[in-house]
Design a protein that fits this description.
Elements lengths: L7 E5 L6 E8 L8 E5 L7 E12 L3 E5 L2 E5 L2 E5 L8 E9 L8
Antiparallel strand pairs: 1-2, 2-8, 3-7, 4-5, 4-8, 6-7
Length: about 100
């Protein structure tokens, strides 16, 4: 178990939509139980809506959903890669509102 660092790209997928949506793309060296820490304010998020994950079991070819676990402490989202495979590329999507009082209803 370790923290993923220096091997991730952050890509904005919905600029100016009212919801900040980002993809994290890692290198193919990420292992089960590794973590990714994201300071939400850096990405314009005050209220987190969703976190989804995928694993590339064959780089850029065989892609499967995987259930990442998450926690938020003092504005930092910690994403934990589930048990399964090691040394694989991961893609994680996270999205939220910039306004903490905003809601879908």
């Amino acid at each position: 178990m370790g923290e993923v660092s220096g091997a991730s790209n952050f890509i904005s997928i919905a600029p100016n939509s009212g919801v900040s949506e980002w993809l994290i793309e890692t290198a193919n060296t990420v292992d089960a139980a590794d973590t990714i820490d994201v300071t939400l304010a850096t990405y314009g998020i005050a209220k987190l809506l969703v976190v989804e994950g995928w694993v590339h079991t064959t780089d850029n070819s065989v892609i499967a959903p995987e259930t990442v676990t998450t926690s938020v402490t003092t504005g930092v989202l910690t994403i934990t890669i589930p048990a399964g495979t090691d040394n694989d590329k991961r893609v994680v999507k996270f999205a939220g509102y910039g306004d903490a009082t905003h809601s879908l209803t």
